[in-house]
Write a structure and sequence with these properties.
Blueprint lengths: L1 H55 L15 E7 L11 E6 L5 E5 L12 H11 L5 E3 L18 E3 H9 L4 H9 L4 H15 L22 H12 L2 H7 L3 E5 L6 E5 L10 E9 L3 E10 L2 E10 L2 H15 E7 L1
Antiparallel strand pairs: 1-11, 2-3, 2-10, 4-5, 6-7, 8-9, 9-10
Helix pairs in contact: 2-6, 3-4
Keywords: Cell shape, Cell wall biogenesis/degradation, Hydrolase, Membrane, Peptidoglycan synthesis, Signal, Transmembrane, Transmembrane helix
Family: Belongs to the peptidase S11 family.
Pfam families: Peptidase_S11
Length: about 325
């Protein structure tokens, strides 16, 4: 009887041992599969992509069997269509995505920017103020030129002042924003010029937030294009400059201000903004943003006699002359 029990236990131990070996083998194979299978899938996918791309277009391989990938890059091709003749002193067109200059005439010449100055004013202001912040109109803010009709002592939200500055080109709104900045007007102008230095703009200097003419207040078409590019990356500013008209009121509803965008091209043929400007010294200025066929272009005309007409001709020529396509490199 004792021998039978020993024999039974021996067989049981052997079965348990064999079962353990079997389970360990299954576990090992499973682990190996989990590690190797995704690599095999990726390799198979690369082979398939390479073979498919080779059959379709050898120049557009997206990957190869070694795992080396090729990047998709935007290429802009000049089709050599003769450009219009412009009377503006400075003219520029720039592709937003790549920064490529598509047209240029005197783009680094220092000229009076007039109210295109307010693009930088908007950048500095939105970096500090929140839309609901309440600002006060001080006597210093009662300046001449274009305005939104502010009253001394009136209180408005920063959002309302931003619309008044960028739609009506309100000098009073620009000065109110600056005078409510910590340190007041001098500190705000210093912040504008600090941003100029940070952006490495060689041909720009500001001495007021509205764009009044001064020997110490200048910019260039190229610098304004770079400033505009930064501005339209800000959703708040992009929304404001794309607005045709609106109403804003004082914080206590005591005053109502009707605002209308001075940009006559807005919403026509893909125009999205951004800012007009004019003074006796500057002539007619316009910094524009247009999008057609999913490609955005910034335009600048300075010291023009027909800023909107010349901008429209520039935009039309750019989209006729250039071809955008994405290629693999």
């Amino acid at each position: 009887m004792r021998k039978k029990i020993q024999l039974f236990l021996a067989k049981t131990y052997m079965r348990v041992f064999l079962l353990s070996i079997f389970l360990l083998a299954i576990f090992g194979l499973t682990t190996l599969g989990l590690v190797a299978f995704p690599k095999l899938i990726r390799l198979t996918e690369r082979d398939l992509i390479a073979v498919t791309a080779y059959g379709a277009n050898q120049s557009q391989l997206t990957a190869d069997i070694l795992g080396e990938t090729r990047q998709l890059k935007l290429q802009i091709t000049d089709q050599k269509i003769p450009a219009p003749v412009f009377q503006s002193q400075s003219v520029l067109a720039m592709d937003v995505e790549t920064g490529q200059i598509l047209f240029e005439e005197n783009i680094h010449e220092r000229l009076a920017p007039a109210s295109t100055t307010k693009i930088m004013t908007g950048i500095i202001a939105t970096n500090y103020f929140r839309p609901a912040d309440v600002l006060t109109v001080y006597p210093i803010d009662n300046v001449g030129g274009s305005n939104m009709g502010l009253k001394i002592g009136e209180k408005l939200s920063f959002r309302s002042l931003l619309y008044g500055m960028l739609l009506n080109s309100g000098n009073d709104a620009a000065f109110t924003i600056a005078s409510n900045f910590p340190g007041g007007l001098p500190a705000f102008v210093a912040a504008m010029n600090s941003k100029v230095s940070e952006m490495k703009l060689a041909d720009t200097h500001f001495d007021n937030p509205a764009g009044f003419d001064s020997d110490n207040h200048f910019s260039s078409a190229y610098d304004l294009a770079i400033i505009a590019k930064l501005a339209v990356e800000n959703p708040q500013l992009a929304k404001v400059v794309a607005t045709k008209e609106t109403f804003v009121s004082a914080w206590d509803k005591s005053y109502l201000h009707s605002l209308k965008n001075l940009n006559e091209l807005l919403s026509a043929d893909g125009v999205l903004g951004i800012k007009t400007g004019s003074t006796e010294k500057a002539g007619e200025n316009f910094v524009g943003l247009v999008e057609r066929s999913e490609h955005k272009v910034i335009t600048v005309v300075l010291n023009s006699r027909d800023r909107f007409g010349e901008t429209k001709r520039l935009m039309d020529w750019v989209y006729a002359n250039y071809k955008w396509e994405k290629i693999y490199q």
